[in-house]
Amino acid sequence: MANTKEIKDRIHSIEDTMKITNAMYMISSSKMKRAKKELAATMPYFFRIRGELTRILRHVPDVKHPLFDLRGDIPKEQRKVGIIVITGDKGLAGAYNHNVLKKAEEMMEQPGIYKLFVLGIVGRMYFSKKDVDVDDDPNFLYTVQKPTLHQARVIAERILDDFQKGDLDEIQVIYSELENAVTVETKTEQLLPLKKSSFDASKLPPDLYHEEISMKPSPQEVLSYVLPNYITGMIYGILVESYTSENNSRMMAMESSTNNAKDMLKDLEIEFNRARQAAITQEITEVIGGARAQKRK
């Protein structure tokens, strides 16, 4: 059994660690609430854009645009696929980063020529040690902390340019979505090419107003203006969703660590009381033994 001094040192160490985990829990909670507020303030605009795209395709379903080009004539083995992988900038978030990296590796096992666009320091450090094609453009090395519309717009411009030039035939994004307060799900979504079937009117808010539309100078020109904004909105929503999921995962991990620390403190307090009681009993025994020895003299 450890002596009382060793047990006290362990108790103080665990209490200091618990202060850190509590602080990280509060910080992550604040960041998550702020991100949700910003997303709620901006997403109605992009819902409106999606609604307009749905109406355009309902009126002119056969309209052609390069961003709707599925390039079905390219075999799977020769398709150039870009994957935007969104990880965190740091750990201590449970399985958040691991699940995203695992999903990316599983996708790259499928037929195709892959190129990674990695957001987040954890993902960049991980794939830098792997034999994979990772985009090293310094303009694309973004942090995932505090996502902004400007950041989403620059990313959208880059991938749109690569897709339209033919450098990429398909663009997927791997991110995390907060299902509820305790569940974070890793998801894959195709950004490009866009699928007309995905613009379903039933997915729009029921109170969205519908009226007759007139597209000038042409539906193609209207789409050329609206679609990039729609892609920017999708990317921004995904960035904020991942940021929210990361902070929620960190909250859960820190809460679990704090609870484990409390359990350890309870066990150590019991052990400390036993050690102290044993020391007191030992001292009493030594005093009694000394008194008996004196009487024998």
UniProtKB/TrEMBL annotation:
Gene3D superfamilies reported for this sequence: 3.40.1380.10, ATP synthase, gamma subunit, helix hairpin domain
Subcellular compartments: Cell membrane; Membrane
Single Gene Ontology BP annotation: proton motive force-driven plasma membrane ATP synthesis
Coiled coil: 251-278
Major subcellular site: membrane
PROSITE patterns assigned: ATPASE_GAMMA
Pfam family of the protein (one): ATP-synt
Subunit organization: F-type ATPases have 2 components, CF(1) - the catalytic core - and CF(0) - the membrane proton channel. CF(1) has five subunits: alpha(3), beta(3), gamma(1), delta(1), epsilon(1). CF(0) has three main subunits: a, b and c.
Family according to the record: Belongs to the ATPase gamma chain family.
HAMAP family in alphabetical order: ATP_synth_gamma_bact (MF_00815)
Listed name of the protein: ATP synthase gamma chain
